[in-house]
Each structure stands twice: as C-alpha cells, then as structure tokens.
Amino acid sequence: MHTRMRFIYGVKLSSEDRGLKHAQIKEKYKGIPVIFISALNDIFDKVKGFNIGGDDYITKTFQVEEVYARINVHLELKNAKDEIQLLLTKTLTGSIKMMTELLANSKPEVFAQASRLKRHAQKLNEKLFIFDGYKTELAAMLSVVGLVSIPDEKKKKKYSGKQLEVDEKLI
Description:
This protein has 171 residues and is mainly alpha-helical.
C-alpha cells in the first residue's frame, strides 16, 4: 500500500518486501527517504531496518510531532543532496566544456578524434537505452587527453607503423 506525499511514500511492506535485501530496497524506493514505523522496538529490528535500506526507524508508540520533525529532516537532507548533485553536474559540465575548448584550440586533430569517439558513445548509449550516458561520453572525450602531451612527430611515427626507439616508448 502506497500513500503519496511530497517526496515521501508511506509503505506497508508486503511479505515479499520484508525479504528484500538492502540494495533491492534502495533500488525500489530510489530517491525516496525510507522511514520505517514499527512496533518492533528491539535493537536487532532497528539495526535490520537500517541494514535493508531504511533512512530512519521510528518505534510505536510515537508522537506525531516527532514523525513530522523526522520527515522534515529527511526532506532537507534530500534537498541538500539534490543541490549538491546539481552543483557537481554543473561543475563537471563546465570543466568538460573548458577541456573540450582547450583541446579543440590546441590540438584540432586530437579533438576531432575525441569527437568521433563521443559520437560513437552517444550512439551506443541510444542503442543500449542508457539515458544517463554522460559518463561514457565523458570517458570517450577524456580517452585521448594523453595524446595532447605526446609530440606530433612521435604520434606520426607510431601511427605510420614505424618502430619507436626505447626512449620514445617511455613517453
């Protein structure tokens, strides 16, 4: 049974939910604070509630004001986590943009290679139905960063099939 409130769900665990493991609870209720309210007040039961993915555990009998206070705490925590995630995303996006522009201006041929890899990663994400594929796209863009520091003549020698000297291999 689900009772929807803003960011909060009241859930009466069915017999199948009671057997769920931590990862399953967290995945099933992803992004939603899980607060158990139970008549079971033994420390073992409380710890088990946390271990299977609960964010809080309230034992019966309780004061309504306490429940509201705990809900507010978890809403504030969720909002803070969301703000941090947004800030990290903006920071990462800005860093990627800066690195992309630097790469495009300093080594256009390496940038072209990275762009091709990124496009392939985007197509792969689409075919695999990966909707948050920015990680693979980022990896594709960053995979060629090491090429920036390799002198052009060494890269040309390597890609033309010529044998590199021992000291050239160390670069």
